[in-house]
């Protein structure tokens, strides 16, 4: 709080009929006397400078507008009483029991909309009745203004959907229309499923354009020979490895190394995909995790086969050294 700050000060107006009862009024700080713990405030309603103790001052945030309280609609505060009876024609109004006003009196600058704001399109009977009962615009509901400041929002839920699903959509909506949110979530899920399917097809095919041309030109008999050759190329049984030439062992080692590197890349890619899907779709994340486990098992088998080929190659090198002598 500094000179020029907007505050609420509690004092009795000399022009008011109820001058004995201290009221809360808006004002601007004129001077601060730290030694006496007194603040000089220029009261807005009466345009006079009054001195108030620090416990009778409530600073107002600079972002929000000052509370426009006038002697005609200000709320009297009598310590020790929970209610005050007025003369005929006045309503029974509850007041605060403490000298200090609650912090909920201050306007909330982050509020989405004020209570009764929609009544600008109507006659505003509800707002006027609340004002007569002592409600201050921008303050919270309740006797001590500790209630809600913003109006209760209205939500439009899609028909024929369970309440649990509606709550789930509400959490994911982020303020959007729930019908549009549901359509967007379904669209995102279908797009992700198509992407995963395309990735699976690309990985499973792993076929170049030259392989397709060779398949078409070779004829049906070459397919069996190619399958047999492919089966022999991945056979890493110890007895079969002994019958392979050094050139065939080098080829097998190269193919197994390439396959191992490819599996590692696929595992990294699937792990990233699962991390993106885990918060949104548990079912898709579980399917991806299953594929990751399969890839890891295949990688382990590939590494074992590569180790067998390397062992056979090392044993042949050692044998060749001894043959020299």
Automatic annotation (TrEMBL):
Compositionally biased residues, Basic and acidic residues: 222-240, 278-301, 314-325
Organism: Hyalella azteca (Amphipod)
Residues covered by region (Disordered): 219-250, 273-325
Subcellular location, principal: nucleus
Location of this chain's protein in the cell: Nucleus
Domain G-patch: 122-154
Molecular function (Gene Ontology), one example: RNA polymerase II cis-regulatory region sequence-specific DNA binding
Pfam families: G-patch
A single Gene Ontology CC term: nucleus
Keyword Metal-binding tagged: yes
InterPro entries noted in UniProt: G_patch_dom
PANTHER family named among the record's database cross-references: ZINC FINGER CCCH-TYPE WITH G PATCH DOMAIN-CONTAINING PROTEIN
Stated name of the protein: G-patch domain-containing protein
């Amino acid at each position: 709080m500094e000179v020029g700050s907007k505050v609420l000060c509690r004092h009795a107006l000399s022009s008011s009929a109820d001058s004995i009862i201290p009221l809360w009024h808006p004002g601007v700080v004129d001077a601060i006397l730290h030694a006496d713990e007194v603040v000089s405030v220029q009261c807005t309603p009466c345009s006079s400078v009054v001195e108030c103790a620090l416990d009778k001052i409530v600073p107002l945030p600079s972002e929000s507008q000052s509370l426009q309280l006038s002697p005609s609609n200000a709320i009297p505060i009598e310590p020790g009483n929970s209610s005050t009876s007025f003369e005929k024609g006045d309503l029974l109004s509850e007041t605060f029991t403490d000298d200090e006003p609650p912090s909920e009196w201050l306007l909330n600058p982050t509020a989405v909309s004020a209570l009764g704001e929609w009544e600008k399109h109507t006659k505003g009977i509800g707002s006027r009745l609340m004002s007569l009962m002592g409600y201050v615009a921008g303050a919270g509901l309740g006797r001590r203004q500790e209630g809600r400041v913003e109006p209760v929002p209205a939500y439009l839920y899609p028909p024929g959907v369970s309440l649990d699903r509606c709550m789930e959509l509400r959490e994911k909506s982020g303020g959007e229309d729930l019908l549009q949110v549901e359509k967007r979530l379904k669209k995102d899920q279908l797009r992700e499923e198509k992407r995963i399917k395309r990735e699976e097809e690309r990985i499973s095919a792993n076929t170049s354009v030259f392989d397709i041309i060779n398949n078409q030109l070779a004829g049906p008999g070459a397919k069996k020979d190619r399958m047999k050759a492919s089966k022999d190329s991945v056979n890493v049984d110890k007895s079969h490895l002994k019958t392979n030439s050094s050139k065939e062992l080098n080829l097998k080692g190269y193919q197994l190394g390439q396959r191992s590197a490819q599996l590692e890349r696929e595992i990294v890619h699937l792990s990233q995909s699962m991390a993106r899907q885990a918060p949104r779709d548990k079912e898709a994340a579980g399917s991806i995790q299953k594929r990751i486990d399969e890839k890891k098992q295949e990688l382990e088998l590939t590494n074992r086969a590569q180790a067998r080929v390397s062992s056979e190659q090392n044993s042949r090198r050692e044998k060749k050294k001894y043959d020299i002598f």
